[in-house]
Amino acid sequence: MDLQRNSVGLGQRPALLLVDLINGFTSARCPLGTDCPEVVDANRVLLDRFRSLGLPVFFTTVVYRAREQARVFRARINHLNLLTPGSEWVQVDPRLQPLPGEHLIEKQWASSFFATDLYKRLAEANVDSLMVTGLTTSGCVRATVVDGLQHDFPVVVPREAVGDRNPEAHRANLFDMHAKYADVLSLNETLKLLDAVELHLAGAENP
């Protein structure tokens, strides 16, 4: 039986967190990746909307700069060793290129919070909630969503803006995240939440 829970939605100053939408994961040319143009397109829509509202945008990438970083993780998944500085695989997909002033967080493990300064940067930007997108649903997205909740951020996950190599894992993790950690909504529903944020921002500017 599903858990009873309440929808929390977004706060007044949400941030968009695009998790690992890098060439190594958005292209089947890399052993770690899969072609997912529909996920990229959904992220493009959200990215344009957040930028139009002047809301914070954060990207993550995975880069290994030293042999000792994430040794066990890399021992389990050898292809992670492709994610080296200067490699095309660690670059954000050019269809979603960060603008000057947008944050790019380097990470070595699944969660965007673990061993990074993401929380500090979110606090400095006065962020009160998160919209988490990216790859993969069952891996780095889920880990980031759980840690987002554990840092007391309401989290929203747009269903069309996340993806996974395994469709069954994708569906199961969306179900489980919605049950416990986040509001998993359609892209249209998340855009309606952003419409409400826009109304709040307009009211704050014109009291």
TrEMBL record:
Pfam families: Isochorismatase (PF00857). The keyword Hydrolase applies. Residues 15-188 form the Isochorismatase-like domain. InterPro entries: Isochorismatase-like_dom, Isochorismatase-like_hydrls, Isochorismatase-like_sf. It comes from the Bacteria. Keywords: Hydrolase. PANTHER family: ISOCHORISMATASE HYDROLASE (PTHR43540:SF1), PEROXYUREIDOACRYLATE/UREIDOACRYLATE AMIDOHYDROLASE-RELATED (PTHR43540). This is N-carbamoylsarcosine amidohydrolase.
